[in-house]
């Protein structure tokens, strides 16, 4: 092609090309590039890693997009440098390793307020975090119309800190749930949009010294809780006492028998009664303190190990009040994840009464059978808690043996832990606080896990592992089959089944992963689009030593279409981008291709300007890349254009609805342009992405 004139001066805003694109393939976005700009002078110096350039910002953007402020990466290395000498590096007492934490606790949804909101009498706006509050009078000023409104005396406080107990004045987002005609005690406690509740299950068979220590720990514990935390208090001995937070002046409890599991009738009467058994701390802190102060030591003259303790029945009741009236909730608002609910048991002795119990004495003639039955019952209760996203931690203290083997299955099966303490003092108090706040649970949900997976990082790791085994062309063919099997296995393990079909749908949370692996399977690393095995071998070795950024580009090319005015639109790397009136840049890591459509190439002035802009973009994208990639330019229909076409997913054979779903830019074309595009394709046998997925008996995921 003839040498083009110099690049035109664009008026589009400067945006350095080294900043990574995060647009998903199914969501094209206009991206502005300066035709003559370089990296900003304020950028940090380039860093070279494994033979390729990368910016620290780019790595962190790709891997830590959604990390909350102050949180560390998921991978912690034992050292930041590695010894060169094998003899030194292999010293077993000081090895090198990485601690990988692939999951994290799901963030809670907005706080829920179980009352009518305060609204402006003039314009109807809601009281919120941005309102000015007149502390002495409790009046608040509307941020919309600036009118003063009353709060029925609720917003009266001595300082702004006093008002933080109101979620609407301390959080930018809250949800109001109106309970309608339900009784005053109705609280939809299992609505997971609220912060996950904590239920204390406390042994009431304690002697006075132990009880005094426990009371101090409990008082300190509730003082440490955030104001929006919902708390429940259950005591157990020979009976189960569930404390009612609706009584402000006295410690009041509903009592259930402990010799057997609570009946559905008794639980229904409890939950639908007038009592409030889970309440937010900002409303019930004084009540909680009065409950703890009312606890009394064990009065009967019976040894600690022989006292009746119905721990199993108490945990069942705690689990029931956490679940709440689920039948009514199923017709309510959409739920949002609030994390794991908590049951924290404070135990001073063994479970010797009611379900899951063992006899007081080991010499009981039926002890072995009863122990076996108790173990199974406790494990089943733990699994039931686990199914309802509830973790049971058991904190034991004192000098009385608690028979750990009986209690351990309950904690373990729910995802909790059992901890032994010398007494009920400071150490137990600290663990109470940490048990209520820690991230835990052996399972939040499959969807939450899949959402946390970084598609691009996972794809690069899979690709590197696969390429390690692809020593020659024969191995590469075998590795394509392993990719097929991996796709089928992920769909089988994590994907839902398509209704009225034997196909499994690939998980929608991983919508990018199969497309990237499809590029890997048919691209130059494993496919046959480059002719010589020596070239493929060199590419594979470069890929195995490349940084994340370059590795991703070598697997899945980035497609950018030139637009008038010097901007570029990122599109999925499909052959539907081959539009005759457009210029396209395809960055494939070690090669960058510039393709000019025939209609554009016929216009000498437009094609020269577009080609100049594309060359500038290609140079900016690869300015520090090593080895420096080839930059090839060619026109539609030329022999060299096959380099470009072979690296695009052939989507022209897919039905129109699938084309539009995965390549939305088609919707902006006129019917004439779409007809012209369709007629420009040459038929060949390579399957499209959707055809390949269905050949594996897997339905493609919905585009993200």
From TrEMBL:
Residue span, Sec23/Sec24 helical domain: 456-552
Compartmental location: Cytoplasmic vesicle, COPII-coated vesicle membrane; Endoplasmic reticulum membrane
Key words, A-Z: Cytoplasm, Cytoplasmic vesicle, Endoplasmic reticulum, ER-Golgi transport, Membrane, Metal-binding, Protein transport, Transport, Zinc
Topology of this chain in the membrane: Peripheral membrane protein
Compositionally biased region (Pro residues): 1-10
Domain Sec23/Sec24 trunk positions: 199-425
Domain Zinc finger Sec23/Sec24-type, first and last residues per copy: 117-155
CDD domains in the record: gelsolin_like, trunk_domain
Region (Disordered): 1-52
Domain of life: Eukaryota
Similarity annotation: Belongs to the SEC23/SEC24 family. SEC23 subfamily.
Function statement: Component of the coat protein complex II (COPII) which promotes the formation of transport vesicles from the endoplasmic reticulum (ER). The coat has two main functions, the physical deformation of the endoplasmic reticulum membrane into vesicles and the selection of cargo molecules.
Designated name of the protein: Protein transport protein SEC23
Organism in which the protein naturally occurs: Stylosanthes scabra
């Amino acid at each position: 092609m003839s040498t083009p004139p110099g690049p035109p001066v664009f008026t589009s805003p400067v945006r350095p090309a080294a900043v990574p694109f995060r647009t998903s393939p199914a969501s094209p976005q206009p991206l502005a590039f300066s035709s003559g700009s370089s990296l900003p002078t304020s950028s940090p110096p380039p860093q070279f890693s494994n033979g390729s350039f990368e910016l620290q910002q780019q790595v962190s953007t790709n891997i830590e997009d959604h990390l909350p402020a102050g949180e560390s990466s998921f991978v912690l290395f034992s050292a930041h440098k590695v010894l060169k000498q094998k003899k030194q590096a292999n010293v077993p007492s000081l090895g090198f390793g990485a601690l990988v934490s692939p999951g994290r606790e799901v963030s809670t949804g907005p706080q829920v307020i179980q009352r009518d909101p305060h609204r402006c009498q003039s314009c109807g706006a809601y009281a919120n975090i941005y309102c000015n509050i007149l502390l002495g009078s409790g009046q608040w000023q509307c941020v919309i119309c600036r009118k003063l409104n009353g709060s029925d005396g609720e917003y009266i406080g001595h300082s702004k800190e006093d008002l933080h107990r109101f979620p609407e004045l301390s959080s930018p987002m809250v949800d109001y749930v109106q309970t309608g005609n339900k009784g005053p005690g109705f609280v939809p406690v299992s609505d997971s949009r609220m912060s996950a509740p904590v239920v204390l299950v406390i042994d009431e068979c304690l002697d006075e010294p132990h009880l005094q220590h426990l009371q101090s720990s409990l008082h300190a514990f509730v003082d440490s809780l955030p104001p929006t935390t919902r708390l429940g208090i259950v005591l157990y001995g020979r009976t189960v006492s569930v404390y009612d937070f609706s009584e402000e002046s006295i410690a009041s409890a509903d009592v259930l028998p402990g010799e057997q599991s609570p009946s559905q009738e008794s639980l229904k009467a409890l939950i639908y009664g007038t009592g409030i058994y889970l309440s937010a701390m900002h409303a019930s802190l004084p009540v909680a303190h009065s409950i703890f102060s009312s606890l009394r030591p064990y009065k009967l003259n019976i040894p600690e190990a022989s006292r009746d303790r119905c721990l199993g029945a108490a945990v069942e009741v705690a689990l029931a009040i956490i679940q709440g009236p689920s039948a009514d909730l199923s017709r309510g608002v959409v739920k949002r994840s609030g994390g794991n609910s908590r049951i924290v048991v404070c135990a001073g002795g063994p479970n010797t009464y009611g379900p899951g119990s063992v006899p007081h004495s080991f010499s009981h003639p039926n002890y072995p059978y009863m122990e076996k039955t108790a173990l199974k019952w406790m494990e089943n209760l733990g699994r039931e808690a686990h199914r309802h996203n509830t973790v049971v931690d058991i904190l034991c203290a004192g000098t009385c043996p608690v028979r750990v083997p009986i209690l351990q299955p309950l904690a373990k099966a729910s995802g909790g832990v059992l901890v032994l303490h010398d007494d009920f003092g400071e150490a137990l108090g600290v663990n109470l606080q940490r048990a209520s706040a820690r991230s835990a649970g052996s399972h939040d949900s499959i969807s939450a896990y899949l959402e946390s997976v970084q598609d691009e990082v996972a794809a690069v790791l899979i690709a590197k592992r696969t390429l390690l085994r692809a020593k020659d062309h024969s191995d590469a063919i075998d590795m394509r089959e392993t990719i097929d099997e991996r796709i089928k296995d992920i769909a089988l393990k994590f994907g839902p089944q398509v209704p009225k079909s034997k196909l499994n749908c690939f998980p929608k949370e991983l919508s990018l992963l199969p497309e990237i692996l499809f590029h890997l399977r048919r691209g130059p690393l494993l496919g046959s689009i480059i002719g010589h095995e020596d070239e493929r071998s060199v590419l594979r070795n470069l890929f195995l030593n490349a940084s994340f950024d370059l590795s991703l580009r070598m697997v899945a090319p980035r497609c950018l279409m030139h637009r008038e005015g010097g901007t570029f639109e990122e599109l999925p790397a499909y052959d539907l981008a081959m539009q005759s009136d457009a210029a396209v840049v395809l960055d494939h890591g070690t090669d960058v291709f510039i393709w000019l459509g025939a209609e554009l190439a016929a216009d000498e002035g437009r094609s020269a300007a577009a080609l100049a802009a594309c060359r500038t973009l290609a140079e900016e994208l690869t300015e520090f890349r090593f080895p420096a990639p080839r930059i090839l330019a060619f026109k539609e229909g030329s022999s060299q254009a096959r380099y470009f076409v072979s690296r695009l997913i052939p989507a022209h054979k897919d039905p129109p609805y699938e084309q539009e779903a995965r390549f939305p830019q088609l919707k902006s074309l006129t019917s004439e342009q779409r007809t012209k595009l369709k007629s420009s394709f040459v038929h060949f046998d390579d399957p499209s992405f959707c055809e390949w997925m269905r050949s594996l008996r897997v339905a493609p995921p919905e585009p993200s």
